[in-house]
Amino acid sequence: MSKELAYSIGSTFPPLTPGIVRLYSMRFCPYSHRVRLVLAEKNIPHEIVNINPKKRPEWYSDIHPAGLIPCLQFDDGRIVYESVITTEYLDAVYAEKKLISSDPYERARQQMLVDSFQRIVALLFKALKFKDPEAFNEICKVLDHYEKVLSDTFFGGKDVGFTDLMIWPWFERIRSLKSLLNNELDKERFPKLTTWIKNMTLLDSVKKTSVRQDHLIVFTKQSTTSAEPDYDIGLEKPKEEEPAPAEEPQSNPE
Ligand SMILES: N[C@@H](CCC(=O)N[C@@H](CS)C(=O)NCC(=O)O)C(=O)O
After folding, report:
1. Full domain range(s) for residue 67
2. What is the CATH number of the domain that holds 34?
3. How do 71-73 and 79-81 pair as beta strands?
4. 32 lies in the same domain as 54
5. Catalytic residue among 6, 23, 26, 29
């Protein structure tokens, strides 16, 4: 049985491992993907506990008051949630390989890029759920600004940083879901972003955390059409209990 299976109602709290940060996650959640990227990029030893957000385990409300994912839990009781706050916290505590600039203006510039990206999050949802072609055009209009301000290998310079990791999960989804979107980014309109995407895909953290395209396609189809998508797509699941064999019909004595 896979260790990645999502915990749901009725499950028992899995004990924490001393010295290991735990991330409560969901395999297809782009916000969790942000934190998985940061943990991988900074090489922070961690474990992942997947949660079924539609059938959350009872014990999860003691960890995150609103029950959202992602959320970090440390073995000394510290809890940190909200993907951007979590990233800022991890960057401050694990100082090696800094992702956030110490220069106030540069930091503000990157935070603005991450903040405005929420517009794309909403538009992508609209494009996928309502098959609204105008939503993809709107995404491209927002991305024009990102194309304009990208002036180096990554958004913060020669090394991968805060903005890159915070926005990547949605670029991975735009790429992987082009068949569902019936659209993809125009290389002529976005030459710098096209090179940036190539550079991102070469990073180990991006390779390690990428979501399988076929699973993502199935999950996205399900989550835009059903209230209960399968959070364990592609995983080996526990065998359903065999139904008790039906009693043999008694034959009438001749
Ligand atoms: N602002 C939050 C958003 C997190 C979020 O919306 N997570 C989704 C899963 S992708 C969730 O927990 N949904 C469950 C629910 O809304 O009840 C963050 O950045 O961490």
Report:
1. 1-99
2. 3.40.30.10
3. antiparallel
4. yes
5. 29
pLDDT in tens, the chain (254 residues): 689 999 999 999 999 999 999 999 999 999 999 999 999 999 999 999 999 999 999 999 999 999 999 999 999 999 999 999 999 999 999 988 999 999 999 999 999 999 999 999 999 999 999 988 899 999 999 999 999 999 999 999 999 999 999 999 999 999 999 999 999 999 999 999 999 999 999 999 999 999 999 999 999 999 999 889 999 999 988 876 655 555 554 544 43
The residue written with tokens 């096209």 in the block is 194
Q: Name residues whose C-beta falls within 8 Å of residue 47's C-beta, 6 or more positions apart in sequence.
A: 17, 20, 21, 22, 23
Of 68, 99, 130, which residue is a domain's last?
99
Ligand 1 centre and the CA of 242: distance in Å? 36
Q: Residue 120 belongs to a domain with what CATH number?
A: 1.20.1050.10
26 alpha carbon – ligand 1 mean position (Å): 10
Which of 31, 33, 80, 228 gets mutated to test ligand 1 (max ligand atoms within 8 A of its CB)?
31
For residue 143, give the amino acid letter: L
| Pairwise CA distance, residues 104 & 102, whole Å | 6
29 is a catalytic site residue: yes
